[in-house]
């Protein structure tokens, strides 16, 4: 299994399609997977072909489509597809399909393949709210999750017909991110995603804060939120509950994450303070502004009012420091521990550094690790730039600045490496 691909590029992916109206969204998912360089085989259930026909799947995947175990018998398709897959993604999964997967049925090509595979399985359910909330479905989902299947939480919103509630298929981009997290995750002995964060809750901050100068202008940074998102997807795949503090992030919420939107550094500081004692770990992946306007103008700053004499004068904008949330959290944990004996959350910081004349990027990273005092500091040398880029190369330092792990590759691979390094720092389960 160790040679199995850990990214979607070059992976063999079996996409199962259940019989639901949301099957049309899976066409975008297949396109996305093929676009990432995956070799995709689509296996629709017979009933799903009422919604999206085989021709669509053949055109998008560039492979013929089979649905029955009695097709392509000499090639033993029902065994081969499942055996060869590096990842199985089932979207949409109906209540009936979840029940069949849970029971280990093998009455069509899709369920037979799911029974054969030793690869991670991601399931994206879509159904009416009543079906999703039925004890049978809840139990099926719980059992599948226990076995290491990533069953995504359905999105909440308008369903087919006039009803609305939980039951919508997550957006294709969110399923794609979940697929990325599953294929990169550590595995158990059966090849399923290792659920080493079950019972844990993580607070992950993501994105970049905005500091308003006046009602139309703000100071911001280039952070896309993708590293925080990758951490959230990776943690969810491994069984954690996730609170995701999102500072100005324009990405689909990871299914199952509790998203908490914030704008400024002060709002983020307040949110982290309100939540950090309730979680097992705080991961500060957000790019937090170090400075904010000393005073936010209530009306738009007008150039003619500053330069009333018609000159080219520019405003002098006074700034003040924001709270260092990471450092503050470390100090708060120590104070709370002294008072109550509670261990408090494990704390992880990020540091993107460019080397200067006096010190290399790594030396600055080590010094920052010691200064911040977090359990882990994920150091990234950005001398050649990274913001918004897909790939990353990091060193994970402890609070003394000693390197304990390295990771290179996609943000998802980095995310799993950070979670691996975090495990020994988590507080004991009470
Ligand atoms: N951070 C924070 N609060 C701030 C600034 C940063 O919690 N006001 C956190 C970031 O989320 C990150 C870590 O601190 O996890 C390091 O961020 P960075 O901007 O590199 O550190 P700074 O303290 O701003 O250090 P410097 O200005 O020296 O680069």
Whole-number total of structural domains: 2
Small ligands present: cytidine-5'-triphosphate
Instruction: Indicate the CATH topology of the largest domain.
Output: Rossmann fold
Low-confidence stretches: none
Work out the helix count. Answer: 14
What sort of overall outline do the alpha carbons produce when their principal axes are compared? globular
Annotation, overall tally of beta strands:
19
Mean pLDDT comes to: 93
Strand content: 15-25%
**Main sheet overview:** 8 strands, mixed
Secondary structure category: alpha/beta
User: Which CATH C-level class of the largest domain is it?
Assistant: Alpha Beta
| Spatial gap, N to C terminus | 34 Å
Annotate the secondary structure layout.
Elements: E1 12-17, H1 23-35, E2 39-44, H2 54-61, H3 77-84, E3 87-93, H4 95-103, H5 109-116, E4 121-125, H6 129-133, H7 135-146, E5 150-151, E6 155-158, E7 164-168, H8 172-184, E8 201-207, E9 211-212, E10 218-219, H9 226-237, E11 241-247, E12 258-262, H10 265-275, E13 281-284, E14 291-293, H11 303-306, E15 319-321, H12 325-340, E16 346-353, H13 361-372, E17 376-381, E18 391-398, E19 403-410, H14 411-422
Helix pairs in contact: 1-2, 1-8, 3-5, 4-7, 8-9, 9-14
The structure holds cytidine-5'-triphosphate.
